[in-house]
Amino acid sequence: MDLFDSKDTLIEEANKAYNQGNPVLTDPEFDLLAETGLKVDTRNFRTKVAHPFPMGSLSKIKDAESLSKWAKGATGTIIGPKVDGAAVRLSYRDGRLVQVATRGDGVTGNDITGNARNCVVSETLPYPLTLEIRCEAVIRKCHADKFEKNLRNVVSGMLGAKDPRPELALVEFLAIEIVSEDPLTLAAKRDLLREICMKELTVPSVIYDQAPSFDEIEELFNSWKQNFPWAIDGVVVEKFHDLHAMVEKETELLPKHKVAVKFGNEAAVTVIEEIDWKLGQHGKLTPVLQIRPVEIDGTTVSKVSASNYALLKSAGLGVGAEVGVVKSGDIIPYVKEVHTPSQEGLDIPSCPSCDTQATLSSTGIDALCSNPECEGATLVRLQRQFDLFGIDFISGSTIEALVAAGHDSLEKIFSLSESDIAALDGFGRKSAHYIVTSLHKIEVTEAKVIKSAFLKGIGERKGTALLNHYGNLDTMIATIKEQGMTSIEGFGPIQTDLLNTQIGLIETQLQLYRSLGIKVAPHTAPAKDAKTVCCTGSCPGKSRKELKEVLAEMGFVMASSVTKDCCLLLCDDPEGNSSKLTKARKLGIEIKSYEDFFENQ
Ligand SMILES: [Zn+2]
């Protein structure tokens, strides 16, 4: 059973998983799969639509030499930022918006008109024109902290999702060009675009008599990158001979008169020498690619991690594959390009702990060790439990030693006395004392109890949302068991289903903790009429976390950004000019210094 021989299947599965809030690929991995293929939009519930004019994509240029070769003979160029968004077309008939579609494979795309109407979009044009506007669907960089994923992937995920999400209101369509049945000159097209689209939502461009040098283009790129409110990932260069000549209708999927110029992030080329598998929670085996060591950014990189078995299978990442690896700054190195896929193929791995051959998960994405007696899996499970408790004195190797001595469950470990532990190899009186004392001091929140059931996608944050809804854990368990879970904001059908069927696991964890004498701190839900405040700058004597706690005790909820729901902005300097202060002034929100605020409370 090998589900992922084609990369489209994995992209489809990954999109679905992302829309359900359980991403299975990292952003660079998603890009790696999407890079070479045009068939990213494979969500089958969308209606496919044929494009009236093909929507091409651009070939890439990465160095000065290729640029001058390509630009040779051009008497003029138009240069603009390459916006890092999702390519779409907005089709207007007699000045009314009739259809919005994704690029898809350039010939057919997906009809996303419904979701697009929830975005920032003009339903009408100032004139009764019939034409299409090519756009990049984008979210401003200032909203990046609201999402865990690269904004382009967020946008395509939401536009393609079955149900509209509230965050679609943040999506804007940046106009790039007009395509129409009527012949127009390049100059007329540019003028018309600026006339019918909001200036702010039109991608800027500069006209040059000749092609500028690679360095000049890089300078433009850097200045746009810094000042543009949306992410850009290169520069688009279009060459022309006469701005006032009629433009031929575009029919090519890879137009020759336009290229994308890209900078930096050069990948180091190397070869995959071996693949190791790491055993994780639920018996999941995660691949670690051993590569021929390469020097990147002054450090030697010899291994690269990857999310799952299916990614390797779909991208041809096996022993012998020639790949481009990227690492910049603090990010973990990852495979950016596959130059030559592996000829050896990829076998289903064996568990590094018990050597049993793995099985594939029902989705085909993960390789799993399904041996119930696997000692490695037991260890991973216990280590996750102890990570959750956060005890300094009980390290990974302590747990390993306890499991090796046969104490392989929480119950067994909690029943050990100081002398039991001191009698084990490698433990002294002192460490035995610390361990037993720490075990008896463990205290967890109710949200952590929910997390400890390790239901996919249900962590502490989701746990807190559930507790806020139900009040406390006992009520939550009883209510879900008796009546089933009602729809709660932020929980999709998959997670609701998961909780309805697996609520027993959370109950078991709660009972286990109580029987072990672990103190479970009752949940305190924020008051229903809590006021929202936003904070900027540092508060004297309080960390951000302490500040949040103090405010919560006073009945305030701390928001991460200034919105009209805020009643107050706290800051270190009320005369300052930070973006939060500027926005608060614009919205007429009261501004107070931390000093004033805490003095008068
Ligand atoms: Zn195993």
CATH architecture tag of the largest domain: 2-Layer Sandwich
The number of helices is 20
The CATH superfamily label of the largest domain reads DNA ligase/mRNA capping enzyme
Cα Rg: 28 Å
The first-to-last residue Cα distance is: 65 Å
Overall morphology: globular
The unique ligands bound to this protein are: zinc ion
Main beta-sheet strand count, sense and barrel state? 7 strands, antiparallel
Oligomer state of the chains in this structure: single chain
Q: What fold name goes in the CATH topology slot of the largest domain?
A: D-amino Acid Aminotransferase, Chain A, domain 1
Strand residue content: 15-25%
How many domains? Answer: 4
The count of DSSP E runs of length 2 or more, i.e. the number of strands, is 24
What is the helix fraction of residues, given as a range?
25-40%
The CATH class label of the largest domain is: Alpha Beta
Query: Average pLDDT across residues?
Result: 85
Unreliable stretches (pLDDT < 50, length at least 5) are: 36-44
Class inferred from helices and paired strands: alpha+beta
GO biological process, one term: DNA repair
Pfam families: BRCT, DNA_ligase_aden, HHH_5, OB_DNA_ligase
GO molecular function, one term: metal ion binding
Enzyme class: ligase
